[in-house]
Design goal:
Largest sheet: 8 strands, mixed
Number of strands: 16
Structural class: alpha+beta
Oligomer: single chain
Radius of gyration: 28 Å
Helix content: 25-40%
Length: about 425
């Protein structure tokens, strides 16, 4: 029989990579709590209609990339290609999103798009989404940017990411701009590639985001969206830039930054890096003030941001960042059946007595020498030794493996208190 392999573009995250993922996840959880964002968890499968109505039927995602199928009742369902639409659907369905009310949520999980797999781009990938509802000023736009900037600081990535911003204006100003773009690109139709010709009549703004280097000259000469903005959008964008400058955030205005989803308006932004090849964006987002009403709710302003976890992990590895070091306090070495029976019971008693204790108990037998090799590889601070003599006398031997100190023999009844003292495990360190 042939060896089974994972589906193309859907990768395994192996134990050797998890310390980087854990480092990122813990940093994110701490930041969300610090900024007042609450977690929600969303279904992986949604009705296909949700994404057609939110993302846009003429986007690449809906036209070419979604994993859609009919269930047994004949209803079209889709593995989620992004998280914002599901978050908005949940907020409307449960009556959480209401005018004049502010909500800040975050979520994480697997997303699915049938794209060409390459470094930093997978068919199953993981995103963290951050969404804020009920706030229309540029201050919340800046808060999202500051939150992500602080993440780069915490992870040591500040030097390898750069912020780009733009504004897409209101739907009315985009409509006027769209007419100018169609007229301009029609005049240069012979210079467009197949994708751009397809987008010309249906979604011409997406031509501005083309990665085809041959199109760069014609795109650079295209009309600028900023020249078609309404006054309210101009003011919002000016205030955004003033606030970013006031808090010391460096940024570049990129007039060709349009994002790939139809629901965006006004502020859009991306954090980019030049360290991951073609997959430059590690986090991106923007305002979607019309989406709640578009999906059946009452009109509520909103903004969100998504962070690609695979790309951030790849960036951590690229710069040689240290992964999260998992602490091991104690490794229990046991020899003989009596020691095994006693040791398993003692270990559970210590876990009860010392919340937060990180202890590995030797399994699979082996000589004392072999067990000590395992203890050394585990990077445990102390070894607890239990042999026939210790069982007979109801004591354990404590041997320091990583720090200065003498070997101790301690009665079973006193072992919990002694370990807690030796390891410095206070109440705060156990939480």
């Amino acid at each position: 029989m042939s060896t089974l392999q994972a589906v193309r573009g859907m990768h395994d995250i192996l134990p050797e990579h998890m310390p980087y993922w854990s480092k990122l996840e813990r940093a994110l959880c701490d930041l969300f709590a610090a900024y007042g964002y609450s977690e929600m968890r969303l279904p992986i499968v949604e009705k296909t209609e949700l994404f057609k109505r939110s993302i846009g039927e003429v986007t690449d995602i809906v036209e070419k990339e979604m994993y859609s199928f009919d269930d047994r009742n004949g209803e079209s369902l889709t593995l989620r290609p992004e998280g914002t639409a599901g978050c908005v659907r949940a907020g409307i369905e449960h009556g959480l999103i209401q005018p004049q009310q502010a909500h800040k949520w975050w979520y994480s999980g697997a997303m699915f798009r049938h794209e060409r797999p390459q470094k930093g781009r997978y068919r199953q990938f993981h995103q963290v989404g951050i969404e804020a509802f009920g706030l229309e000023g540029p201050d919340v736009d800046v808060e999202l940017i500051l939150l992500t900037r602080r993440l780069w600081q915490v992870l040591g990535l500040s030097a390898v990411v750069q912020l780009e911003i733009n504004t897409l204006g209101s739907s009315e100003s985009r409509h006027a701009y769209r007419a100018l773009l169609v007229e301009y690109f029609n005049a240069h139709r012979d210079r467009l590639d197949e994708d751009s010709v397809r987008r010309l009549e249906r979604n011409p703004l997406r031509i501005l985001d083309s990665k085809n280097p041959d199109l760069k000259p014609v795109i650079e000469a295209a009309p600028r969206l900023y020249d078609s903005l309404d006054e309210a959008s101009r003011t919002h964008f000016s205030q955004l830039q003033e606030l970013l400058q006031a808090v010391g955030v460096s940024f570049t205005v990129n007039p060709h930054l349009v994002r790939g989803l139809d629901y965006y308006n006004r502020t859009v932004f991306e954090w980019k890096t030049d360290r991951l090849g073609a997959q430059a964006a590690v986090a991106a987002g923007g305002r979607y003030d019309g989406l709640v009403a578009q999906l059946g709710g009452k009109p509520v302003p909103a903004i969100g941001c998504a962070l690609g976890m695979e790309r951030v992990v790849a960036l951590l590895q690229e710069i040689g960042a240290a992964p999260l070091a998992e602490r091991v306090d104690v490794y229990m070495v046991m020899a003989g059946d009596a020691a095994l029976r006693a040791g398993l019971g003692l270990a559970e008693q210590w876990r009860d007595d010392i919340p937060g204790l990180r202890m590995l108990v030797n399994t699979g037998g082996g000589s004392f020498k072999a067990q000590f090799r395992r203890a050394d590889r585990s990077a445990a601070r102390w070894a607890v030794i239990l042999g026939d003599d210790e069982v007979r006398e109801q004591v354990v031997t404590l041997k320091p493996l990583r720090e200065q100190g003498e070997q101790l023999r301690v009665a079973w009844a006193d072992a919990s208190g002694t370990l807690k003292s030796l390891l410095g495990l206070t109440t705060s360190s156990m939480t």
